[in-house]
Amino acid sequence: MTRRTDVHPVLDRPGVGAPFFSTWRVGTPERQRQVVEAVAETWLGRPWPAEGLLGYFLYAGEDGSTLLHYSQWADEQAYEAFVRTRRQERNDAIDTAVPDIERVRLGRYRHYRSLTGGDHDTRVPGCVVIVDIEFDGPDPDRQRAWVDAVEEALAAEPNQHPGGIAAHFHLGTDGTRVLNYAEWESARAHIDALAADGDGVGSPTEAWHRVQAWPGLKSSTVSRYEYALGLVPD
């Protein structure tokens, strides 16, 4: 069966071979709440759909309009089997409860690296910040090199922001994107970090300038979310 959980996912969990992120645009904060409850009701009323699905999590966008979906799959074959047999009837039930959901994009990723404070850091994230990086063409080596440069910039950061908990970097399987799932104590802590000197959460150092001016970097977007729903097999 399926059960609801308030526990945040472990982003570097062993066995997750295919982490997927997708976005739904629903329009208003009220519809955000309605869709979350429709997803919960739909999933809790049915058996867990696939052995290869390890967890499914929803986040409400600070913009009041979007929902972020994060699913942990053992591999892409498990997801494709779910699409063939179980996904449509679940989406139909959700759409019946809350019509006119716009399913914007599904991104397929592989977890690459997590930067954390270690096992002694037991803080619970009050805010999840998604940093979506897009390059001008597929290049897996460039994806990894950019993340490595971010790690170097963070290690050399002279003004570490205490509200940051962890950063979990994922590489898009199409070779063009990097997604950072960053955990913060609160939205306020992230806002305060952005308000400090520098472009983004980093200080105006040469290492951060190198990250921001990386050859082929096409776009960078930052969105804040609040944990709304966790579903796991019982």
Helix content: 25-40%
Gyration radius over CA: 18 Å
Give unreliable regions as ranges. Answer: none
How would you spell out the order of helices and strands?
EEHEEHEEHEEHHE
DSSP strand tally: 9
User: What characteristic shape results from the CA principal axes?
Assistant: globular
Average pLDDT value?
95
Q: Would you kindly provide a brief summary of this structure?
A:
By secondary structure, this protein is α+β, with helices and mostly antiparallel strands.
Q: How would you characterize the overall build of this protein?
A:
- With 234 residues, the protein is of the alpha+beta class.
- Helix content is 30%, strand content 37%.
- The chain is built from 5 helices and 9 strands.
- It has helices at 29-44, 76-97, 140-155, 187-195, 206-212, and strands at 2-5, 18-25, 53-61, 66-73, 102-116, 127-135, 164-172, 177-184, 217-233.
- Helix 1 (29-44) crosses helix 2 and helix 3 (140-155) runs antiparallel to helix 5.
- The longest helix is centred in the middle third of the chain and has 22 residues, at 76-97.
- The protein is globular and about 50 Å long.
